[in-house]
């Protein structure tokens, strides 16, 4: 139901998804220009953080937008800068009226 029930499976599924998208890009070259948005689960502590960095590395992200979590932005910048030199990690404010939904710790 949630990534924290089996983080290793979650990471494996991220890799399988990346492989499927890479195959599509090889088969349909115009797919290379479309880009992708990866919305994570909101699980940002411990293994959840490692799942986010795994996804960023697998998909070779060029931009990460962190909403309303300055500490997360700093940690992602620190942990990804060495092996992903061209990545940008930026902050965005949470839209007014948005409520937090804490289903994963």
Short précis:
The chain has 105 residues and is mainly α. The chain is built from 3 helices and 2 strands. The longest helix has 21 residues, at 7-27.
Radius of gyration, taken over Cα atoms and rounded to an integer in Å: 15 Å
Name the assembly state.
single chain
Give the CA-CA distance, first to last residue: 14 Å
* Biggest beta sheet attributes: 2 strands, parallel
Mean pLDDT: 88
Instruction: Look at the helices and sheets and give the structural class.
Output: mainly alpha
Q: What portion of the residues fall into strands of 2 or more residues? A: 5-15%
Shape: globular
Low-confidence spans: pLDDT under 50, at least 5 residues?
A: none
Question: Which structural traits does this protein have?
Answer:
105 residues, mainly alpha, two-stranded parallel sheet, 3 helices, globular
Structural account:
- With 105 residues, the protein is mainly alpha-helical.
- It is built from three helices and two strands, in the order H-H-E-H-E.
- The chain has a two-stranded parallel ribbon with strand order 1-2.
- Helix 1 packs parallel to helix 2.
- It is globular.
- It starts with 6 loop residues before the first helix and ends in a 13-residue tail after the last strand.
- The mean pLDDT is 88.
Give the helix/strand layout.
Blueprint: H1 7-27, H2 47-58, E1 63-67, H3 70-80, E2 88-92
């Amino acid at each position: 139901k949630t990534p924290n029930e089996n983080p290793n499976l979650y990471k494996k599924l991220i890799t399988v998804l990346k492989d499927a998208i890479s195959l599509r890009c090889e088969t349909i070259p115009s797919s290379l220009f479309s880009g992708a948005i990866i919305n994570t689960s909101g699980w940002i502590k411990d293994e959840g953080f490692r799942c986010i960095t795994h996804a960023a590395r697998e998909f070779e992200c060029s931009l990460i937008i962190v909403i309303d979590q300055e500490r997360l932005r700093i940690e992602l910048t620190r942990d990804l800068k060495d092996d992903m030199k061209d990545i940008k990690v930026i902050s965005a404010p949470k839209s007014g009226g948005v409520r937090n939904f804490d289903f994963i710790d």
